[in-house]
Design the sequence.
């Protein structure tokens, strides 16, 4: 009887695994664990770089992700905007992903307009989407005004006070890129940072981190936020707990479930194998 | 020739864009700028081509009642449902397209697709990550142990943090 149970456990219906994962991820919504990670050096470097910018700096923000990555990357965008505005800087936001413009508009309105009460056109600008990937990145190095002649709302950039004197990357103190893949941080490193001499700060989804860590270690990135954990660390540094810190509970529980199933699967596998050898 | 000519054009312009980087001459720069603008326009037109392709392939399958034609029909309807209101009402916050079609429909659907990975990862971990010998047990044990060790030094509790930060 016990052997039959072991065999059944080895071929456990995957719907039980799904159920366990669902419970593990959903439970922290009701019972908060309050987990938050300690700050890692790339996140500290990101934070310190923004802190070191002179008051009133113009910062070009390229937020490039789709709704699929919203849960992981949107908290970074919100924190970056919050950090820049809190320190008196002036973000100019663009996006190179066709599914991002509406997401970014919502962030910008929530943070810049509603939370900080900033004036559009003077304190922040949203230029919207320009399709063309690397070609747009390089074109902005020649002229941002001709690459983005109108902002997201159709206003000519010449009529926006913040854009006065903005010509190309040299008009900005740094570039912040939050990206879920192509085009994103890798392309900015390849085509923009060295060629146009602009410091780059990056926030990326966790799967991209092994690739981007090399850029951080070589100094091509001045700071790196890594997935929802990096966003949580950044929120922690900003003393502004948000969605990333809340998500840490669910993510941690999810990881525990995966580890538990790996251990469980191995134990059952070995018990079954021993039974087969004996019989 | 249908293959060779596009490849030749790509080769010529590609080589020119590499070479122009090393020639800081105004005329060469001007040509390069113009080519970059062409590239942006061509990439933008790829959206039109892609849309036409989606309609052609899926529309034909729906018309012929091919395999999975109902799904294709849903795709075509969803395509027009997103494109037409988007063209007429815009995508700015407060518009019907943004609020109902994008924020309340597309965003949750896309997020759900991505989130479902967690379930498949858990299932795959249970089935596939089985150690067959002592070496793999050691490797896996080391991996889990080192992760657990590094994680055990990381967590802090929000409430503790808040207490310490508020003094």
Sequence:
């Amino acid at each position: 009887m016990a052997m039959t149970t072991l065999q059944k456990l080895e071929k456990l219906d995957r719907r039980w695994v799904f159920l366990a994962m669902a419970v593990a991820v959903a439970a922290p919504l009701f019972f908060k664990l309050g987990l938050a990670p300690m700050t890692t050096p790339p996140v500290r470097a990101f934070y310190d770089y923004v802190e070191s910018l002179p008051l009133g700096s113009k910062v070009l923000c390229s937020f490039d992700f789709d709704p699929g990555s919203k849960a992981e990357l949107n908290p970074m965008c919100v924190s970056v905007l919050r950090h820049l505005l809190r320190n008196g800087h002036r973000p100019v936001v663009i996006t190179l992903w066709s599914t991002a413009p509406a997401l970014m508009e919502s962030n910008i309105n929530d943070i810049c307009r509603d939370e900080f009460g900033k004036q559009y056109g003077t304190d922040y600008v949203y230029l919207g989407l320009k399709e063309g990937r690397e070609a747009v990145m390089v074109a902005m190095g020649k002229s941002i005004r001709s690459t983005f002649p109108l902002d997201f709302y159709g206003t000519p950039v010449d009529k926006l006070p913040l854009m006065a004197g903005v010509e190309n990357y040299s008009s900005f103190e740094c570039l912040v890129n939050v990206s879920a893949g192509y085009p994103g941080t890798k392309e900015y490193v390849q085509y923009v940072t060295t060629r146009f001499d602009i410091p780059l700060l990056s926030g990326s989804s966790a799967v991209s981190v092994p690739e981007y860590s090399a850029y951080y270690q070589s100094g091509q990135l001045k700071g790196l936020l890594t997935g929802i954990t990096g966003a949580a660390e950044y929120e922690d540094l900003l003393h502004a707990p948000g969605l990333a810190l809340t998500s840490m509970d669910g993510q941690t529980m999810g990881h525990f479930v995966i580890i538990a199933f790996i251990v469980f699967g191995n134990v059952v596998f070995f018990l079954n194998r021993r039974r087969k050898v004996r019989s | 020739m249908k293959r060779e000519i596009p490849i030749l054009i790509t080769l010529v312009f590609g080589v020119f864009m590499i070479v122009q980087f090393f020639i800081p001459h105004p005329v060469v720069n001007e040509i390069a700028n113009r080519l970059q603008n062409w590239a942006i326009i061509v990439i933008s037109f790829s959206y039109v081509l892609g849309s036409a392709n989606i309609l052609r392939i899926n529309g034909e399958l729906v018309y012929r009642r091919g395999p999975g034609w109902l799904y294709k029909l849903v795709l075509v309807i969803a395509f027009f449902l997103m494109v037409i209101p988007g063209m007429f009402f815009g995508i700015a916050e407060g518009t019907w397209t943004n609020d109902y079609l994008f924020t309340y429909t597309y965003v949750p659907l896309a997020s759900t697709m991505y989130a479902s990975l967690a379930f498949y990862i858990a299932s795959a971990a249970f089935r596939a990550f089985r150690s067959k010998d002592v070496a793999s047990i050691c490797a896996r044990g080391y991996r889990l142990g080192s992760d657990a060790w590094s994680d055990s030094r990381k967590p802090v509790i929000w409430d503790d943090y808040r207490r310490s930060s508020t003094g």
Observations:
- Chain A touches chain B through 55 residues (CB under 8 Å).
- Chain A has eleven helices and seven strands.
- The two ends of chain A are 15 Å apart (CA to CA).
- Residues 243-278 of chain A form the longest helix (36 residues).
